[in-house]
Each structure stands twice: as structure tokens, then as C-alpha cells.
Amino acid sequence: MATTCRANAALLTQSTMGRKFVVGGNWKMNGTKAQINEILGFLKAGPLNADTEVVIGVPAIYLDYVKSNAPANVEVAAQNAYKAEKGAFTGETSPLMLKDIGVNWVILGHSERRQIFGESDELIAEKVAFALSNGLKVIACIGETLDERDAGKTEEVVFRQTQAIANQIKDWSNVVLAYEPVWAIGTGKTATPQQAQEVHQSLRQWISKNISPEVANAVRIQYGGSVTGANAKELGSQADIDGFLVGGASLKPEFVSIVNARQ
Q1: I want to staple 136 with a disulfide (CB 3.0 to 4.6 A). Which of 39, 131, 249, 252 is the partner?
Q2: How far apart are the first and last CA of the chain?
Q3: CA nearest 143: which of 159, 166, 124?
Q4: What does the alpha-carbon distance between residue 90 and residue 82 come to, in Å, rounded to a whole number?
Q5: Taking Cα atoms as reference points, which of 239, 244, 108, 237 lies closest to residue 185?
Q6: Which one is catalytic: 53, 75, 110, 119?
Q7: Cis peptide leading into 47, omega within 30 of 0?
Q8: Over the chain, what HEC string results?
Q9: Per-residue pLDDT of the chain (263 residues; tens, 9 = 90+)
Q10: Catalytic site residue 180?
Q11: What span, in angstroms and rounded, lies between the C-alpha atoms of 207 and 203?
Q12: 28, 24, 58: which is closest to 178 by C-alpha?
């Protein structure tokens, strides 16, 4: 048993070497200034693990406010951006606008953008490419629905969504992939650590074969889907899970314990 534990620990260290743990908090369409001040309060109080990169995804109307008031060890992300620098695109935000107010991250391809707003793999990939070309770092979301999982199509869907991005970009250094099983988002259902690791490992192997071994070794893959303070440590101990993209829990003080899952 001791030998197995040592072997697993060695595997985790080897697999994650050079990949900094990254935890994103996606606020979605939530927050008032009063609530935001409370969130920023517990983030400032922390303490947050210095070895974990922290990014919070903020509604567009509050991006400037949060950027001006967030602690220095917390990055701010937009929850969406369009594939053009300006123009007649009512209601959209461009990467150049984000850069103009000092926002350096954007979340793209979230399942809600795909499922509710009908964004295609191709559009998401184009938005990823445009954001990167304008100096943003991207959390690119992928994941299957419950029907797709039940049909045994998890890998097919995840690989297809990743391939669409790979068709548009060459440099993956500013991309974080977020694997989010749609059936586990906001439902209280969570993939077991073993289920999540299985998909992350398969995805990394696919990237090695279809993009490059170097990208596969370097790209960080987050898990998202009802991550809580209670399950974060076990999920975060898996060799190919390099962080989390958290929804509802990012609005609560338990987000600090999720950030500190690797401590």
C-alpha cells in the first residue's frame, strides 16, 4: 500500500510539473455592488494559496469596478467576448475593450453559451483565436450533456470541441481548457474524481496525438461541475486535473477553500 501511495504521489508530481494550478470563479449573471464587495472581502481576507492562479469571471457591467477593487493576487475575466475589434454588434464586448480596462482574461465556450445561446464549436473557436491574437488569456470550455454521456459520446464530444479550437490556433500557451460535464453544472451532481480524471487523461492523450506532446504536457485542464469545498481536495489530487472552474461556490466564502485545495 505504501509503495502504491508513493508511486501515485510521484505520478502526480511528474504529471503536474510546470503546470500551475488555476482556479476560476464564474459568477455568471450574479452580483450587485454590495454582493461584490462581500466577495472581494473574503478574497482579500483569504489567505489564498500563492501557488494557485486565481481568476474571477465577472458580468460585463462590473468588470471595471472589480478590476479596480480586486486584490492583486486575483485576476479578472470577462465571461464572453466577440470575434471582432468593433462594429455593429449590439450587446457584445470586444477583446480590445477588455484590454482597454486592464482585463486580461476571458471565458469562452461555456456550456450556457453553447446550450442557451446556440454558439457553435466553430464560432467559439473563432472567438478563442481572436481573443488570443489580441493578447487575452482564454479559459476555453468543453463538455458533454447528460444525453451525450449516456450515449457513450463523452470523448467524441470533447475531442470534437477541442479539435475546432485546434483548427484555429497554433499557440496554446495562453489557453486553459475547462472540462465541464454539462450534467454536473449547478445540479449538485459531480463526476467522481475517477470519472473526471479519466476524461482529463483521455483528453491529454488526444492532445498529445493530434496537436503535440509538448502542448499536452503544458496545457492546463480545469474541472468544472458542482465543485465545492468538500470535494475540491480529492478532485484536485488527480494527476491530470490542473484546477477548477467554479460556478455558484465562487460567490461564497468556501471559494477560498477551493482555491486552497492543493495545500
Answers
A1: 131
A2: 23
A3: 159
A4: 11
A5: 244
A6: 110
A7: yes
A8: CHHHHHHHHHHHHHHHCCCCEEEEEECCCCCCHHHHHHHHHHHHHCCCCCCEEEEEEECHHHHHHHHHHCCCCCEEEECCCCCCCCCCCCCCCCHHHHHHCCCCEEEECCHHHHHCCCCCHHHHHHHHHHHHHCCCEEEEEECCCHHHHHCCCHHHHHHHHHHHHHCCCCCCCCEEEEECCHHHCCCCCCCCHHHHHHHHHHHHHHHHHHCCHHHHHHCEEEECCCCCCCCHHHHHCCCCCCEEEECHHHHCCHHHHHHCCCC
A9: 444 343 334 444 444 558 999 999 999 999 999 999 999 999 999 999 999 999 999 999 999 999 999 999 999 999 999 999 999 999 999 999 999 999 999 999 999 999 999 999 999 999 999 999 999 999 999 999 888 988 999 999 999 999 999 999 999 999 999 999 888 776 767 678 999 999 999 999 999 999 999 999 999 999 998 899 999 999 999 999 999 999 999 999 999 999 999 98
A10: yes
A11: 6
A12: 24
Q: Is 110 annotated in the active site?
A: yes
Q: What burial class does residue 237 get, using C-beta atoms within 10 Å of its C-beta: 0-12 exposed, 13-18 middle, 19+ buried?
A: middle
Any bridge partners for residue 21, and if so which? 52
C-alpha cell at 163: 479539435
- How many residues does this entry show for the chain? 263
Measured over all CA atoms, what is the biggest interatomic distance in the chain, rounded to whole angstroms?
A: 63
- Within 8 A by CB and 6+ apart from 130, the residues are 81, 82, 83, 84, 95
